[in-house]
Amino acid sequence: MKFIKTTVHEEEIDLVANLPKFSIILGITGSYALIESAILETIQTINSVSNIKLELVVIYNHPGWFQSPFHQMLPLKIKCDYRVFNADSENLASVFNYGAANARGEYLLFLWPGCHVAQTGLNTLYKAIQDNKSDLYIYPNNDILANYGVDGEYFVNNFFTHFVSSEEIIIIPQTLIRADFLKQLGGFSDSLLLGKEFQREFFLRATRSKSIEILSISNPICQVVTNLESIIEDLNLSRYATQSFAVRSGLNGTSAIEQESNFLNDIQENYFKRIVNPQSRQDAHPPPPLRIILVSGAWEYHHNKLTFYNYFKILEGSGKLTFIPRLDRVILPEKDLLNADLVIISRGRSANILKVLDYCERFNVPVLYMIDDNWFSISSDYPKLYGSLFVSGNPEYEVFLECLRRSTAVLVYNKVLEEDVKRYARKVFRLPVNILIDDFLKNDKVVLPHQVNYLLEWRQQENGTLLGYVGSARFTDVAFRALARADMDADMNVKLILFGNLLPEHRNIFKHNPITLPFTTYENYAQIMRSLNPDVLVAPLENNRTSNSKCPNKYLEYAVSGSVGVYTDIYPYNEYVRDRSTGVLVPAEATEIDWYNAIKELVINRDIRGNIACSAREDVLSQYETRKVLPEFLSMIHQVIQDNQEDSKL
Fold first, then answer.
1. Residue 12 — pLDDT band, cuts 50, 70, 90?
2. pLDDT recorded at residue 348
3. CA-CA distance, 51 to 106, in Å (whole number)?
4. H-helix or E-strand containing 111?
5. Cβ-contact 586, 569 below 8 angstroms
6. Burial of 461 (0-12, 13-18, 19+ CB in 10 A)
7. What is the gyration radius of the CA atoms in the chain, in angstroms?
8. DSSP H helical segments within 469-605, as ranges?
9. Which of 278, 297, 334, 370 is the most buried (most CB within 10 A)?
10. pTM to 2 decimal places
């Protein structure tokens, strides 16, 4: 192996014609005396890898490393091709970015001293990228996933954002990242406020930026023997602060400078002076900013996005609050709820939530419970699916009822559901639904699925009409049969899109293979809807108490996307939608022909369709945009805290 010394800080091997598939980037920060043995352990495991072409890129964080005995013996210790650089930074994220900029591999594996590379994991990855060049391969913490009965494939394809925002399930050394993808994202955030949480921020930003495909592998890529805390020096911020900053930065699209400025304004000076032991708190009113812990189940990200994250986004930099999410089944109240001003439980029914309630009662922490589905009526309305779950005696249902009874207040969005909740809750707040228009504004960084580009080209060339359905599975098929009938009508020149989840028997109704788009993050969903701007979308509901208790989110999302919705004429739609003004209502007992005729009229008469679309968008933005509802949300938050303080004096 021939080495060419180019500077005192850098060594480089001759370039080879066939670039390596993998570049392993070893970021070295910290004290030489403390981490030398850990570095050598990592190098030994890299040396043991065979049958895979790779390079090792060693990145020092300080030029002094080039004078160390360790550096002098590198040629004797490393068996593969390697190069050495100096990033001159204490920040591990910056060190990794420097390594990525100088790596030549198609895929990048980032390690710190004390990470042990696994040959089996690399073999699995090497085989995987021959068939499917994914942007991100991960080996998640399956022990945590097992607590939720979730396998790795379901985790990455559906709920990656929610899991990563709530728990440290995945870290950088457990991933293989396509180099071009990392470059497109702008690398890792090197904000000093993040510390080791730059990893969490990266994963959240990755899922927000585009519809990436993440593949989970069953074999570990590496074993992390040395914790990152012993390798890097974070700022002296609390665990809550760094995680709060990581989550908000990863979930939102503001610039790095804005993120830091907003967060520093939100934590304020008094953030660092707060009493650590909640038992000794004497303040009558928690000082701003409020610390909010959002506790929810494994599948609640989309619910949280609409009910809480929208508001948190708008409040950034206002000095009013910070927040972190936690998963209900693994939350540790004594650790995760320390010094919280408010605990929000979102649709929780895990037995572990009882420990959260116990803690909050013991330390006088207010609790707001949010429920947006009618779990009282669902077992009788849909006995086949929910008959054994939401019934008296079922442990999860009993936890739900106890949450209603013991929480300071319960939040709902529907007057029918409010009637049922009032039988159990101390106090009930009902807020309007909201939609954040920012999500639906054009974002050039989002890469749209190829099906979307195909439909855009078709509509431009053919001047056709795009029909379809967006959302989760429904239990009535009449609207879907009407869509299928429209699709079979050659005179209408339409194409169908099904975006989300449908029951298999409903998908089988369609004979012309409609365009289907899978479940995705809310941000990607919003961008696809904005780009597609479907002409007519159906929103069927069954006429029962469970359906009457739902939120009219489809009306808001259809309207801001410029689509005209055809809705079942039952509550809640008929309270929000004005027939033939902001949408079209069809009777609850309507037949397939009734739905078909409503759809056909909108397809044929573009003027009517355009007028309805404009009116609906204006209606939603004037009443339900997040900024319009924000004052009610803030008033509720402060009222819950005040009520809890008054109750504690009784």
1. very low
2. 94
3. 17
4. strand 107-111
5. yes
6. exposed
7. 27
8. 478-488, 504-507, 522-532, 545-548, 553-560, 573-576, 592-604
9. 370
10. 0.90
